TrEMBL record:
Pfam families: COX6B (PF02297)
Family of the protein in this entry: Belongs to the cytochrome c oxidase subunit 6B family.
Protein name, entry field: Cytochrome c oxidase subunit 6B-like protein new16
GO cellular component, one term: mitochondrial intermembrane space
Amino acid sequence: MAPTFFTTSTSTATATIAPDRSKREKCWLARDNFFSCLDKHNIVDSIREKNKVDKVCRNENTSFEADCISSWVTYFKQRRVAEWKKSQAIEKLEAEGAVRLEGQLPPPPVKR
């Protein structure tokens, strides 16, 4: 039997449907509650410190993971760590006397 590359089957697609406004708000509220719990217990990276999270923020994490699609959960957890690292780098630079520049950088030169 030859392999089938194209099919006319009408099976239902399992594409993810984007969350509507109320689902997004529910997700954001669950995220904020989870992150508040992490802040209260001085946890920055909930992925690396999973055991500690399971002990002190299990309910909040469960709600967060139930109320948000998994790609958002991963994104928000990773973004939290990235934002923390960014703020730490800025604090270090400011402590060393760096001054924040306002405005935009000029565009890169065009190679001819």
